[in-house]
Specification:
Helix content: 25-40%
Distance between the termini: 81 Å
Number of strands: 16
Largest sheet: 6 strands, parallel
Strand order of the largest sheet: 2-1-3-4-6-5
Shape: globular
Strand content: 5-15%
Length: 598
């Protein structure tokens, strides 16, 4: 009976086997991963050393931020990857895993783990194990991620001396799941497996071949396309409404936009899809969300469009994305609509319908006077006091004057809702606006900016980034500035200061106090090699934005913010009314019913 791999399969086969560490490096490279974010530790040290020669292993200020940076990476690439140590490092990433699961992101969370040879009767450090327990629980992190609905596995070592381990094949299957299903996976890797020989893999020639192997088991695409073509031919004012799943399928999005441009079809997108379209294109009507929107051609969406083709929206809609359940979302309520949700992996069913539709002899038969009209020039910003109410307007004016448009990174809170009025333009990395509005995790904008800065550097772009944050959200994550400093990031941070968590505030408990009056963020940004500024008028912010974009580097612009309702963005005022209504406040309930026409 063979006792070794060499005796079983021959020495040539044995010497051809890679170590698991090298195989992991090759696998990540196959998926196009050029960098990962993480925090080191003893159980993950072997993996760090093994991967360091294959890709950039980049530091984060803490594990949660590493997970958030990997989420942003997953918004822009085939995979986003985070690396941590066992339990004490991986458990802080559960928030990022929940974000990825909710937003549909291909996030890979790699964690070191105790070696298989170490597991015995002794409780190992970092094990979630009280000293009064009768047995050790080595699966606490695995179970935590599984509780979120995340696929979580520990790689398995050699089980027979004559057979190499299957850990590389197991890892390929998990990475493929993340990529094809756009869902996070959690992988624990025992540290003694890194140097062990693993089975050889035969990878496809290119990543796209993985998608080509996906079966489309749904029929009827031609019949659906025929119905859409019939409705388009009868429509005098059609509209395509594009949803959030398309932001992660750029080839399909490009084909849909080509279809719109060929037939001269106007299109809009949902809030959750903001940033995937160039909103300055004449056919683009912007990012729409019912009564919460304020778009130049909103009347076309809500009262003129006589046929809507909705593509790529969520199967189960979110209240945030659907006008907070106010029943004012014109697309939701439209009587003549076709919905292509995309229920197959990588929207293969939608692609099949589009294949059939584009092969039909459809001709442009629509004319829209408003598309040819020149937009009225906006007046230059004046000396009016700054607030969320005029922030987006001022930033939009500054962006028009810049040689390159911004990539917007709004923080969850008042800044996020004010940011929906920003004009997203074309981007060198395919996205000009990155946020997590569905999951709405605060403390992500700077972590996202890290991944965006690396992506811009990779393609040689000098496009500027603009972070919009309140002081509460900033204090969640200010320590991530150290890595933006090391990157030499071209980033301007607008810091809206009112010293409280204002969005949803329902009382005066100390928990809402997020800042101290004596805190000076301008001194803090200097410690990270940046420059601090303060603006209190629209005119001064406009000039400062032009200056920071021209100078480049790291900048923080502090804007003192009044708490009066009129200084809030229109969206935030409506949202605070909505929150009060949901919390049972009688006055807010009456205001909300008036707002919704009920």
């Amino acid at each position: 009976m063979p006792s070794t791999i060499s005796q079983n399969f021959g020495r040539d086969y044995y010497t051809s086997l890679p170590s698991l560490g090298d195989s992991l490096g090759e696998l990540l490279g196959f998926f196009g991963v050029k960098r990962l974010y993480g925090v080191g530790g003893d159980f993950v040290a072997n993996l760090i050393n093994a991967l360091d020669g294959h890709l950039e292993v980049l530091p984060s200020s803490n594990e949660m931020h590493a997970g958030f940076s990997a989420c942003a990476q997953a918004e822009l690439n085939a995979l986003g990857v985070c690396l941590t140590t066992y339990t004490v490092g991986s458990l802080p990433c559960t928030s990022a895993a929940a974000l990825a699961r909710t937003e549909g992101l291909p996030l890979v969370l790699l964690s070191g783990a105790p070696g298989e040879e170490e597991v015995g009767r002794e409780a190992l450090h970092h094990t979630v194990h009280p000293h009064t327990a009768w047995h050790t629980d080595l699966d606490a992190a695995l179970n935590a991620f599984r509780a979120l609905g995340v696929r979580a596995e520990r790689l398995q070592g050699q089980r027979h001396s004559g057979q190499p381990n299957m850990a590389a094949a197991q890892c390929l299957e998990l990475l493929s799941h993340a990529y094809l299903q756009r869902q996070p996976v959690f992988i624990e890797i025992p540290r003694d497996l890194i140097g062990q020989r693993t089975q050889r893999l035969q990878l496809p020639a290119e990543l796209a071949q993985l998608r080509s192997r996906l079966p489309l088991n749904l029929g009827g695409a031609e019949m659906i396309a025929t119905e859409i073509a019939s409705r388009l031919s009868r429509a005098s004012a059609p509209l395509l409404y594009l949803g959030e799943t398309l932001r992660l399928n750029r080839p399909l999005l490009a084909r849909i936009l080509d279809f719109c441009h060929r037939l001269q079809l106007p299109y809009a997108c949902s809030w959750f899809a903001k940033g995937m379209l160039d909103e300055t294109h004449p056919l683009c009507l912007g990012s729409y969300n019912g009564v919460f929107s304020r778009l130049p051609h909103q009347a076309y969406i809500e009262s003129q469009a006589d046929y809507v083709l909705e593509i790529g929206g969520a199967i189960f809609p979110s209240d945030t994305n659907n006008a907070f359940g106010s029943r004012t979302h014109g697309i939701d309520n439209h009587p003549n609509k076709t919905m292509l949700k995309g229920t197959a992996p990588w929207e293969l069913d939608t692609s099949a319908v589009l294949d059939a539709l584009t092969s039909m002899p459809l001709q442009p038969a629509f004319s829209y006077g408003f598309l040819a009209a020149e937009p009225e020039p906006s007046p230059p910003p004046g000396r009016e006091e700054l607030g969320y109410h005029n922030l987006a307007q001022t930033v939009n004016l500054a962006q028009q004057a810049l040689p390159e448009p911004y990539i917007f990174l709004p923080e969850v809170g008042n800044a996020l809702f004010a940011s929906f009025e920003l004009v997203a333009r074309a981007s060198d990395i395919g996205r000009s606006y990155l946020a997590n509005p569905w999951y709405a995790a605060m403390g992500t904008s700077l972590a996202y900016a890290r991944a965006v800065a690396d992506q811009l550097a990779e393609c040689g772009s000098t496009q500027p980034m603009l972070v919009l944050t309140g002081d509460g959200g900033f204090n969640f994550q200010a320590n991530e500035l150290i890595n933006l400093q090391k990157q030499g990031a071209n980033l301007t941070l607008i810091y809206m200061r009112n010293n409280i968590f204002h969005l949803g505030k329902a009382g005066d408990a100390p928990i809402y106090a997020c800042n101290a009056d004596g805190f000076d963020p301008k001194l803090l940004i200097r410690a990270y090699g940046g420059q601090g500024h303060e603006c209190d008028t629209a005119e001064s912010l406009f000039a400062c934005l032009l200056h920071t974009a021209a100078v480049g580097g790291l900048h923080l612009i502090e804007i003192p913010l009044a708490l009066k309702p009129e200084y809030q963005s229109e969206i935030a005022r409506k949202l605070n009314t909505y929150i009060g209504y949901r919390n049972g406040n009688a006055e807010a309930t009456a205001d909300w019913r008036r707002l919704c026409g009920r």
